[in-house]
Amino acid sequence: MACIASDPMLDIQPDFASPTFEGLRNQIIGGTQTTHNEVVVDLIVAWQQDRNLRVVAWTRQVKEDAHLAAEAARVDREQEAQECLWLEHEAEDELHEAEKKKPKINDFQVGTAVSDILTPRPSQYAIHKLKSFEYVKLWYFSPDGCKATADEAKTSADNAFGFTKVDDFVALKPVASFKASHRAIQDHCLEWCQFDLAKNSFLLYINKLNWPTKHQ
C-alpha cells in the first residue's frame, strides 16, 4: 500500500449536500427514483468507510515506522558502543606500548650504605678463569695485578677482537683482555701484603660468581 502522508483522522468530511457535489449526485441518481438526500447519505457512508480503512493503514504505518526508527537507533547505539570500545582498547594498547618503552629506573635497597672502598677489578682473563672454575694466579686480584692488566689493555697494540656475551647480548672485546699477563707473579712469590689483598679480592669475586659455598 502507498505511504499515507497524514493522519486520516484529521481529514474533514466533505459537505456532499452542497452545490459543489450536485453534479456528482445527479450522475448517481441518473434515471432512478433516488433522492438527493439518499445519495448524500450513501456518499457520507462511503467516505467514512474509506477513512476507516485509511486509519487502520495509518496506524499500522506509524507502528512500522516507530519500529524501524527504534531498530535504527539500536544499531547506531551498538556501533557507537563498538567504536568507543575500540578506541578504549586502542588507547590501552598505546599506553601499554608507551609503558614498555618508558625507561626503567633501577631498584635499590633502602638503607644500604655506600662503601668508601674501591675494590680493584681483575682482568677479563682472570674473571673468565673463575667462571670456568680454573686455576688463576692470585696476583691478578691484587691491586698491582689489576692495575697492570688494565694498563696492558689500554696500551696494547693488538687490534684483534673476540666475541663475548654480556647479559643477553654479544659484544666485541679486545683479545688482549683475555690473555695471560707476562707480569703475573707466582703465588709463592707474592709479598704478604700483596697476598693478603689479593686473597680478599679473590674471595669476593668467587662469591659474586656463585662458587659452591664449600670452595669459598
Question: What's the quick description here?
Answer:
The chain is mainly alpha-helical and 216 residues long. It has helices at 22-29, 36-101, 124-131, 143-155, 192-208; strands at residues 161-166, 169-174.
Task: Give structural notes.
The mean pLDDT is 85. With 216 residues, the protein is mainly alpha-helical. The chain is rod-shaped. The protein contains 5 helices and 2 strands. The protein has a two-stranded antiparallel sheet.
Fold topology:
Layout lengths: L21 H8 L6 H66 L22 H8 L11 H13 L5 E6 L2 E6 L17 H17 L8
Antiparallel strand pairs: 1-2
Shape assignment:
rod-shaped
Give the helices and strands as they follow along the chain: HHHHEEH
Structural class designation: mainly alpha
The total tally of domains equals 2
What is the number of helices? Answer: 5
Any descriptors?
two-stranded antiparallel sheet, mainly alpha, 52% helix
